Automatic annotation (TrEMBL):
Signal sequence bounds: none
BP GO terms, sorted: endocytosis; endosomal transport; plasma membrane tubulation
Name this polypeptide is given: PX-domain-containing protein
Residue stretches making up the SH3 domain: 89-159
Record-level GO cellular component terms: cytoplasmic vesicle; plasma membrane
Record-annotated membrane-spanning stretches: none
All residue ranges annotated as the PX domain in the record: 293-432
Sorted UniProt keywords: SH3 domain
Family matches, as InterPro entries: AH/BAR_dom_sf, PX_dom, PX_dom_sf, SH3_domain, Sorting_nexin_WASP-bd-dom
Region (Disordered): 1-29, 43-88, 167-205, 326-350, 524-546
Biased composition (Acidic residues): 73-88, 336-346
Record Gene3D superfamilies: Arfaptin homology (AH) domain/BAR domain, Phox-like domain, SH3 Domains
Amino acid sequence: MAETASSPPKTGLLQVPQLLSRPHSSELEFDSGINTSAAWTVSLTNPHDSPRLSLNGAGASSSAGTEPKPTPEEDTTESVYEEGSFDAEEARPARALYSFQGKAEFRELTQVEAGDELEIVREDVGEGWSLARLRDTGEEVGGSETGLIPRSYYIFTADFVYSEGLEVPPQHTRGRSRREASTGSITPRGGSPVRETEARPIVPQTTGEWFPSFRRSLLGGKSLNRFSSFVTSGAEEFVLQGTSEDTSASHPPRLPSDLDEDDVKRESVLGHMVEAERHFVEAGPSWRTKVPAFRVLVHSPSKRTSTITGAYTMYTVTTAFGALSHSRTSSGSSDPDTDADADADAEPPSPMRITVHRRFSHFVALHTALTRLLPGIALPPLPEKQYAGRFSDDFVEARRGDLERYINRVARHPIARYAEVLTFFLGCESDTEWKKKLPYYLSLPPKGPSFFANVYHPAFNVDSDEASEAIDRFVNHTRAVGKGVQGLRNIFGKVREARVEMSKAERLLSYSILSTITAKPLAQAPTTGLSEEEEEEGQNTATHGHVNQDGAWCWREGCDTCLKLTKAMQKTSETLQIVADLYDDHARRTQLATHEAFKSVAHPTTLYAPVVDTHRSTLSRYHDSIREGREDEEMAARCETVLNTTMAEMDTYHTQKVEDFQELAKEHLDGEIALYEQILSRLRTARKAFDEPQYEELGRGPRQPSIYERELEHPRLNPAPLSQPCPHVFDSAPMRPVSVAIQEGVGMLLGAPGRASVFGKFW
């Protein structure tokens, strides 16, 4: 049944991130907040928008009808209180996400702590408020406090009860049915009968080869699949034949045999899966955002050992949900001064965090499930597997950053954000539940045409001429962006090298100053303007007379003037060493992180190639379906659905491109500002040593040797090479000449010395 734009379905399961509207703090404490996977467990139904599920002990069942909406006169806060019919069986269980201190005069809940159990008597009483009852285990339910609470301050929970009358079919099949063309403002329209398919288990895909960068060197990151994405995504089958309606709702996929009874009970509630698989396109076209974005942190990697799989790296994954500032104006108050005072006194709600532990193979499983679940969108690629040096500190840190960028790019996609497998990945804390449920998600069949059948959009939302012109401009733009970013990556590497050279120059200047005031020669220092005889004479000359007994740079004993000058210049030398360290650290850490982040925007053409192929192939089918004498309205309608999907993906790229380059520019500028602020602070401190009263105080006591004097014989002028970013999965590597490969291979087989390597055997 097509739904209207005026009454979109509730997201339910992922209403947690509705609390996000404020920028996230960069200083997050991972041990605070509600750290429980139960926070993800919410109902996906709404009595006004979709069939209602019974969760009150009678089993999980759906009714065909919907409850009528109350009239404006009935849907008021006063009428809710006057009715007084708060049936415990109709109340929906919930949990408070934030602490809330209401006012009794506004009939609000006066004291709610984060994590308190609630019963929602009425979800919507107007202006974003809900009528709730605070559960009290020590009293009768009827005696618990009842009042108003903001809708965004709690989340629904549910304990699913198995219904004996509900049977899960042994396998998933597609029925032969035909959908009528929608006459509403939202499509998709019809589907023709399709061949019966069977759910087949899948194996998680790999993200690398046995030989590192083999695919990158030979194919430039391209796939060996000879079928186009128009075929593999199921778009062609959908356009030509369509798909049956509500297949996933009427025939849920068969659960693995190793799932216990509790899992079967939970899966009996079908509303969760149905709602999470329905996607909406608004005018634009652009994806409708069901839930706001949230931030995921991948941190604290640690090495673990398993008797089965051996050593591996475990990462801590923390999902941080921001907090909404509560405005008192939503309660209906008309006094702005009173509202301002109330907001000033109220404490801001604390953000919620969920922390789990995942290894790289878990990310591979997530990517595999998402690829099967969302074939019509452009998912970011996973980093390639590593077979050597995967436990080194540099690689672990690089892999941690790659995984964090990957999961955040998935989480910020408006469609992938509320995928059920993603919430399971981010919220499942129990190892037992993880091991039981993961095979289920990996056994789900590819969505294929059913993905496009669950895309709803306004009718006539795409014009074929505009779609054809838009795809050409999009392709040209992404090519230009990819070429420009590749140049930026190369130049940024040179900028990092320049910072290291600047560090060497500052360090050499520091050594030179220190050598001058101490009469100790600097090894490896260039001495321009002196002849060889003068250099040898200077090296053989005794230091007597160069400095006095106080260590001052003077031949006179007891010279306070030179003592102050020497100490001030020594402080300048030590400051330049600190400046050199700042330059070097900036290039190795701060700029390396920015250099790694360029990978996220490096290859838009390759990333969106499947979307472009699907778009162009669909346009061709659309023109065939409207050709005079061969009109096919059903096919044309399905083509419009696919075109809405591809153009919504292009709009998503536009949005993310703006966010990415803003973030990259701000990250680089913030790093430069922080660097030069530290340098300026150090230089200003050294400069004050030449001004009174600091300069006068330097004359007290003899000069103490500098900690850098011992380095004059072996100066640190040869720093270690810069760490380079790990290559992107789409980066191409130059191929070796065939003659060189054959020569090395023959040399290895014959045992000849030279440049032969282990890989020569395989060439």
